[in-house]
Design brief:
The complex is a heterodimer of chains A (308) and B (329). The longest helix of chain A is centred in the C-terminal third of the chain and has 38 residues. Helices cover 80% and strands 0% of the residues of chain A. Chain A has a domain of 160 residues: MetI-like fold (Orthogonal Bundle). With 308 residues, chain A is mainly α. With 329 residues, chain B is of the alpha/beta class. In chain B, strands 6-7-8-3-9-10-12-11 form an eight-stranded mixed beta sheet, sandwiched between helices. In chain B, strands 2-1-4-5 form a four-stranded antiparallel beta sheet, covered by helices on one side. In chain B, helix 4 crosses helix 5, helix 5 crosses helix 7 and helix 7 packs parallel to helix 8. The model of chain B has no long low-confidence stretch (mean pLDDT 91). The chains are: A mainly alpha (308), B alpha/beta (329). The interface between A and B is medium-sized, with 22 and 29 residues.
Chain lengths: 308, 329
């Protein structure tokens, strides 16, 4: 299988996934009990008010007609208009997305920078002081909720020692603390995976063969075994990146960052159905795209997949 | 007992492993020597100490669990056991190299065959990248994998198991070693490939003047390739001599019984003989012969006096008190 075939296959899968996700979102919102119009209008809204809301939502028409119209608009990349501001949903999301994305990217970088060297060290020096340090740190990292870490970091590095801004992102400096609080928890998980993967590789027969060839330990570990060990980490990192996008939404609250999180949270508070629906679909799409990219990347670096 | 000067001389080598407080006697003081231009077959059941011997020669016994209790290993004038890890690294892959049983596992899946050959010659011969690549192509051609570089660019999983084993042989001979250890190199291959690989090893030995320690559990394979044969049982070499002598007139009951368990097309229909009893528990330290508990000929003397593996007939050593007698097994 060459790379073009693989991309085509994954692309078909991606489109299918997106179709299923959008269908689920559509029906979940409409099939669950409760009239959105009633929720939006409130219990004391008049019948004509409710009718107006339904007309605006389109929920007064048959379900099938709504569904096909919904799919049609998705193809045109039209996610509808906000109930509150009447702005089109997609531009609202896209305007906020770069902040959330950069938060997730920096969070992932923080995670990788912490986890990979420590994980390798843990695996190479198994059951040594380094290993216990790594395992303990990862235990702590997993146990600490990221929002709580965020608050601690703010108190320490924005209030007590005002190195970083308390809120907002006027400069890249504003991303440091949010990315740290996001990255540390994920680093804990990445560290465990790196340690496990690296330990597995170091126990393999080709390592014995490399020693029998007289290769130095340094080369065996950091070149010959590491290349194999990092392959599964790519997949894990991709999944972690998806989580970071979700986690970023919470961290944005802690650091008062105007990202997707704030947008969606207010949309939920204000019962802005099109925005909520568009937001869920958008996040799901980004998640699927990340997985798609990871699959392709994995195939590019793993010789077994490339031609296998 | 040697015609040419030996390139490898193992004397009284005893290796123990620590296993849950008990000492496992992996090698109980073996002697073995091997000259250039010689393929020396080391035959034994699994657990008899064949691979431990190979690992001891490579200096790859795990220091945390194993201990060399006594003995010496000489590579020409050098004493291998007194070398530091750093010095041993210069020997491994360069003066002594090794071919393993399952090439699929012992080749690195993430690197091309060409890279895996080139890194060895770069490590030991100090070649530059281009020179090493050229050397890799040369070696691949030598082992019958073509000279067009297709195999050099391939990853291990893209090759058949026979090709993988050839590639591993190319790596092992890349630095023109004095000694090539082949640990069951054909066991994972089917019969046709087995014959091809044996042929390749023989031709390499002939053209490169290297000594070869050929480790196998299979006497019929050893008969095809070895010039000399040593039979190892429970960490003890029980018999050692030229191939024809071993196969024609074994001087140890264990060898004789092993020979009887080889399937022979001429004796089709008759039952194969299995050796009765259990292999000696490696944790035990018998006073007498290690084979006595399973030996149909064992007498009282065998249980109290350990037989030395010494030359009984010219160039033919046996560790049996009753080597000269005519046996009814």
């Amino acid at each position: 299988m060459n790379i073009a075939v693989l991309i085509a296959k994954r692309l078909v899968r991606l489109i299918l996934t997106l179709f299923i996700i959008s269908t689920i979102i559509f029906f979940v919102i409409r099939v669950i009990p409760g009239d959105p119009a009633l929720i939006i209008g409130g219990v004391d809204a008049s019948a004509s008010d409710l009718q107006a809301i339904r007309a605006k939502l389109g929920t007064d028409r048959p379900l099938a007609a709504q569904y096909f119209e919904y799919l049609g608009s998705l193809i045109r990349l039209d996610l509808g208009r906000s109930m509150i501001s009447d702005e089109p949903v997609l531009p609202m999301i896209l305007q906020r997305f770069p902040l959330t994305l950069s938060l997730a990217v920096f969070g992932l970088l923080v995670g990788l920078v912490i986890a990979i060297p420590l994980g390798i060290l843990s695996a190479v020096k198994r059951w040594s002081a380094w290993d216990y340090l790594g395992l303990t740190l990862s235990q702590i990292g997993m146990a600490i909720p990221s929002f709580w870490l965020g608050i601690l970091l703010l108190l320490l590095f924005a209030v007590k020692f005002p190195i970083f801004p308390l809120f907002g992102v006027d400069s890249m400096l504003g991303l440091v603390l949010p990315a740290l609080s996001l990255g540390v928890a994920r680093a804990a998980i990445l560290l465990r995976h790196t340690r496990a993967s690296m330990s597995d590789e170091l126990a393999k027969e080709y390592v014995v063969a490399a020693r029998a060839k007289g290769m130095p330990d340094r080369v065996i570990r950091y070149r010959l075994a590491l290349k194999n060990a990092l392959l599964p980490i790519i997949t894990i990192a991709g999944i972690e990146f998806g989580y970071m996008l979700g986690g970023a939404i919470i961290i944005e609250q802690v650091f008062s960052l105007p990202g997707l999180g704030r947008l969606f949270l207010y949309a939920i508070y204000q019962r802005d159905f099109p925005l909520v629906q568009g937001g869920v679909l958008f996040i799901a799409t980004v998640f699927s795209l990340v997985n798609f990219a990871v699959d392709i990347l994995y195939a590019l670096v793993n010789p077994k997949i490339r031609l296998g | 007992m040697k015609s040419a000067a030996p390139i490898i001389r193992i004397e009284n080598l005893a290796v123990e492993f620590a296993d849950a407080g008990a000492n496992v006697h992996a090698l109980r003081g073996i002697a073995l020597s091997l000259s250039a231009d010689e393929i020396h077959g080391l035959v034994g059941e699994s657990g008899s100490g064949k691979t431990v011997t190979a690992m001891a020669l490579m200096g790859l016994l795990p220091p945390s669990t194993s201990k060399i209790v006594s003995g010496s290993i000489q590579l020409k004038e050098e004493s291998l056991l007194s070398k530091t890890e750093e010095e041993l690294r210069a020997v491994r892959g360069s003066k002594i190299s090794m071919v393993f049983q399952e090439p699929a596992k012992f080749l690195n899946p993430a690197f091309t065959i060409g890279t895996q050959i080139a890194e060895t010659v770069r490590q030991h011969l100090g070649m530059g990248p281009a020179q090493a690549r050229a050397r890799a192509l040369e070696l691949l051609e030598l082992v019958g994998l073509g000279s067009d570089g297709r195999v050099a660019r391939a990853f291990p999983h893209e090759l058949s198991s026979g090709m993988k084993q050839r590639a591993m042989i190319a790596i092992a001979i890349s630095c023109e070693p004095e000694l090539l250890i082949a640990d069951e190199p054909t066991t994972s291959l089917d019969v046709t490939l087995q014959a091809q690989i044996l042929g390749l090893l023989k031709s390499i030995k002939a053209s490169r003047h290297m000594g070869m320690l050929f480790i196998s559990h299979d006497l019929s394979v050893v008969r095809e390739i070895a010039d000399r044969v040593s039979v190892i049982y429970a960490g003890t070499i029980v018999e050692s001599g030229p191939r024809e002598r071993i196969f024609a007139k074994p001087l140890h009951p264990y060898t004789a019984l092993l020979l009887r368990s080889i399937p022979d097309p001429r004796k089709k229909g008759t039952k194969l003989t299995a050796i009765q009893g259990q292999v000696l528990d490696p944790k035990e330290e018998p006073r007498g012969c290690v084979f006595a508990p399973r030996c149909p000929l064992a007498k009282d003397r065998c249980r109290i006096e350990k037989p030395e593996c010494t030359e009984r007939e010219p160039d033919h050593a046996s560790a049996c008190h009753f080597w000269g007698e005519s046996w009814k097994l």
